[in-house]
Structure formats: C-alpha cells, structure tokens
Specification:
The chain is of the alpha/beta class and about 425 residues long. It has helices at about 10-20, 60-75, 95-110, 120-125, 130-135, 165-180, 195-200, 200-210, 235-240, 255-265, 290-300, 320-325, 335-360, 365-375, 420-424; strands spanning about 45-50, 85-90, 115, 140, 155-160, 185-190, 215-220, 225, 250, 275, 305, 400-405, 410-415. The strands form 2 sheets. Strands 6, 7, 8, 9, 10, 11, 12 and 13 form an 8-stranded mixed beta sheet that branches. Strands 2-1-3-4-5 form a 5-stranded parallel beta sheet, sandwiched between helices.
Length: about 425
C-alpha cells in the first residue's frame, strides 16, 4: 500500500488525507488570483469543471458535481495542496455537446485552467483533439473505452474508474461464474442505439462474449430504447413478440431510464435478472415518494456495477467526507454514492497537483500534471474506489469493480473488487 507523509493541522485531517492518498500540506493561506497555472508566488492552481446539472443525465451528474466542489472546498479550507489553493471553476453544460465546447473554451481562455474535470462521453470524445492541442489533462466522468488510447487521439484523457467496456466484461464473468442452472444463458443488452454514452461498451461486450463464453453466454438481439422514452413498455412488448424473455439483461443508462425499463418489464411479467453498469447503480435508482414500496419491489434483486463507495460504508477514506459534512451541519444521508464518486475523482486530481508542485517547485502547467498523473502507482483511495495506477502508455487507472445488489431497497455488496485482468 502506498503511503505519503503529511504536514498536520489536526490528527483527523492528516489521517483523512492520508487515507485519500494525498500529500496536501496544511500550511499557507493561498492566493485569490493567479496567472495561468498559478505561478510560484501566487499559490493558486486553476482547475476547470464541466458539469451536467440540468440535462439528460443530471440525475447522476448533479450529485457528482456537488461532490467535486465539496472536495476542493474542503481541501482549500485545510490549507490546499502544499500551501497552494486550488481554484475550481465549473459550469453546467446541460448535456449539450456544443455547449460543452463553449464551456471548455471559457475555462481555457478566461480562467486559464491547467486541467479539467469533465462529464459526458459525447462531449469528452469531441474535445479529445482540442485538449491534446491545448495540453490540458482531462478526467471525464465518461469511462468510454475510446478514451484509454494514449496516442494522438486521447493523449491527455485519463480514466479514474474501470471503462464501461471493462465493466461489461466483468459482468459477463460474474454471470458465467454464478448462474445456477443450464447453459447457455440468454443475455440482452439494453441501451440507446446511436447515443455515445449508452452504446459505448456494446460492441466490446459482444466481442468478449464471443471470444470467451461461446456455448455459455448467448447474446440475444439488442433491446434498443431511447433515453427519452419514459414509457418503454411498447418497445419491450414488440421485442418479446420475436424473442424469448432473456435470462439476464445488462443496462447502460442512468438512474431514471434504468428504473423505467425495469418497471415496465416487471409489469409485463419478465423474470429477467436485470444488471447494469455504474451509472445505473446507486441510491437514486429508487425514487422517493408515496409509491416507494412498489419501486422497491420492482427493483429488488437488481445487480449494479459499483466503482466507488457508498457514504454509509465504514472506510478510511470516508473520514474526510464526514468531517466536511459535519462542518456543513449535514449527515451521510444527505449525500449519495455519486457525490462520493465526484469527491474521489477530485481527490485524484489533487494528488496529481501535489506531484506536479513537487516536480516544478510550483510553476505548474498542463504537461506537468500529465507527467504527474502518469507517475501515479497504486494510489490508495482509502476504499473510496479501486487503487489507481497510470503510466505513459496506460491512461486507464484500473479495471476493478465491485458488484452491489438491491435487497429490500438497500444496496448490499455481493463481490469484492475484481476485474477482467484477474480472470484472464
């Protein structure tokens, strides 16, 4: 396990940051302004954020953005990174790719950021060449396999969780290992055809099934449901007229559409074991309301990919989150797993900043942060996510996931961390 030394303000803060794998020293009061990247005397590092807080994926995007902001607020309140404040400026792009371009240009030109924490698949992939030209490292909340490329197309993109494709491959491994009954089993893939996020892992999942599970897993015809189709029962009925109800289904949406699909399938009598990738999973899958118990029944047994911890888990990395919440008169019940996901992503950027400051004596640029990220090896996140390792030829920090299952409305972990690299 990788350990780092910290300057202490309080023993709790030091312990919390150690668990997060940060070398954030708690001395110096920082600065209120800085030139691009924050010069040595300015004590400011500028980071940008691109959020979906009002668009099609805001159900998960809004708490993720809140978690990112909360981390930097907490970090700066406790001295920043080696005395440097992190100026985090972000904007809501409402899941509009053209708007994301405008936000990015504003962050680059008006705010002089040296790195960006982004959001969606379509916009992140659209920005790939531009961030290479601008030499601005980018942590997206998209885990598209396309962003793993370290060559000319994605040389400044980094994945801080398992790619969607690796998540889907791992789900196939779990199905093959745990299925009780005869083989082959029928597995349906449910997604929005033509939507960059939703369709991202589909071909890779199919290829993996063909390569490793011939005669074990049968990928049946796709179930294509648009993200905006809030009553997909007609599509499900039409599909079922030509196909048998699948044994398993792998869904790649966010909370809202995932629950719509499962609700309508259950109302049609489907006994399918529904599963989903990471944005399907979390507390928000079950809506709060008068019909909550009905949703609990429809969604019971759902299995989801868990890339980051839940707030109620007893983990070393949760100590800093608890301290932040207490400072705001909040409780863990006031946040969710996507908040933790955003917080953790921001903490990895803080570690890269820490390394870059040490390497440059504080005059940090985008290329410096890229070099810093590529030097991270087995970064311990205190259990908030899988340990991360990068290099110049590996921008995918991990392929490790856990699986969680909804049981009577509560999430229960049913696996430890595992990945396709453990299986092959």
């Amino acid at each position: 396990m990788k350990r780092f030394s910290l300057k202490k303000v309080t023993s709790l803060l030091a312990t919390s940051l150690l668990a997060l794998g940060l070398l954030a020293a708690c001395s110096g009061d920082g600065g209120s302004s800085a030139p691009a990247g924050g010069g040595k005397g300015d004590k400011v590092i500028k980071i940008g954020g691109i959020f979906d807080e009002s668009g099609a994926t805001a159900d998960v995007g809004e708490p993720y953005a809140v978690g990112e902001r909360a981390f930097f607020e907490y970090l700066n309140a406790n001295g920043g990174v080696d005395g440097y404040q992190v100026e985090f400026t972000g904007q809501d792009y409402a899941y509009d790719t053209s708007r994301a371009q405008q936000v990015y240009q504003s962050l680059r030109d008006r705010h002089d950021v040296v790195a960006v924490l982004g959001w969606g698949t379509a916009d992140t992939e659209a920005l790939r060449q531009q961030i290479i030209n601008d030499k601005i490292p980018f942590f997206s909340a998209s885990y598209s396999e396309n962003l793993k490329d370290t060559g000319s197309e994605s040389g400044f993109n980094f994945l801080v969780a398992a790619s969607y494709s690796d998540q889907g491959r791992a789900m196939l491994e779990w199905i093959a290992e745990t299925h009780q009954g005869s083989f082959p089993v029928d597995v349906a893939l449910i997604y929005h055809k033509g939507h960059p996020f939703s369709e991202s892992p589909i071909k890779d999942i199919k290829d993996y099934a063909d390569e490793h599970f011939s005669g074990v897993i049968n990928i049946v015809p796709d179930i294509e449901i648009e993200l905006g189709d809030t009553s997909p029962q007609t599509t499900l009925q039409s599909w079922a007229r030509n196909n048998s109800v699948p044994d398993y289904a792998i869904i790649n949406y966010t909370w809202n559409q995932t629950r719509n699909v499962i609700r309508d399938a259950r109302q049609l009598g489907w006994d399918t074991q529904f599963t989903g990738l990471n944005w399907t999973a979390g507390e928000g899958l079950i809506p709060v309301g008068s019909d909550n118990q009905q949703w609990v029944e429809w969604l019971d047994g759902f299995v989801g990919v868990i890339t980051h911890a839940f707030p109620n888990e007893d983990l070393p990395g949760m100590a800093a989150i608890h301290e932040y919440l207490e400072s705001k008169d909040m409780k863990v019940e006031d946040i969710n797993q996507k908040f933790v996901q955003g917080w953790t992503t921001a903490s990895v950027m803080a570690e890269a900043i820490r390394i870059a400051i040490a390497n440059t004596d504080g005059n940090v640029t985008g290329p410096d942060i890229r070099v810093a990220i590529e030097s991270i090896n087995d970064l311990d996140l205190g259990g908030l996510g899988a340990n991360l390792s990068f290099s110049s030829d590996n921008h995918a920090g991990t392929d490790q996931i856990r699986l969680g299952q909804l049981k009577n409305g509560e999430w229960v972990m049913i696996t430890d961390y595992f990945g396709v690299s453990d299986k092959r």
